[in-house]
Design a protein that fits this description.
Elements lengths: L2 E7 L3 H19 L8 E6 L21 E8 L4 H19 L6 E8 L18
Parallel strand pairs: 1-2, 3-4
Antiparallel strand pairs: 1-3
Length: about 130
Amino acid sequence: MPLVRIDALAPDPTRLESLGRAVHDALIQALGIPPDDHFQILTAHDGTTSTLRYGDYLGVPRDEGIVYVTITLRAGRTPTQKRALYRRIAELAQDYAGTEPRNIFVTLTENESIDWSLGNGEAQYAPDR
C-alpha cells in the first residue's frame, strides 16, 4: 500500500490531477498494486507563500516544471522493479501532464508491515494474534 505525496510548482488543478493519475497508473503497471489502493496527497505550491527549490544536480537541468514525488511503501521491491517504476512515472507524467521527464524527482521510502494503520486504529498488515 503506497502513500504518495506529489508536490508541484504552480500547477493548474488539471495538471496536478494528471500527475496523480500518472503516478498511480505507474504503480499499478510497474509494481502491481491494486487499482483501489489509491492514497495520495497532491500539493500545489504557488511560488510565493510556498515554493519548491531545485538545482541541476547530477547534470539534470530542472526548471519551474519540477515535480517531487515521494512514495512510502512496504519493503520488498527489487531494484529492477524500482527502476521500472521511475521510468514509468516519468513517461506517464509526460503523457498525461506534459511534464518533462527531467523534472520528475522521485524518492521511495520503505518500511515494514507493522508501520501501517489503514484506519480504525488497527495494524491491518500485522494483526495482533
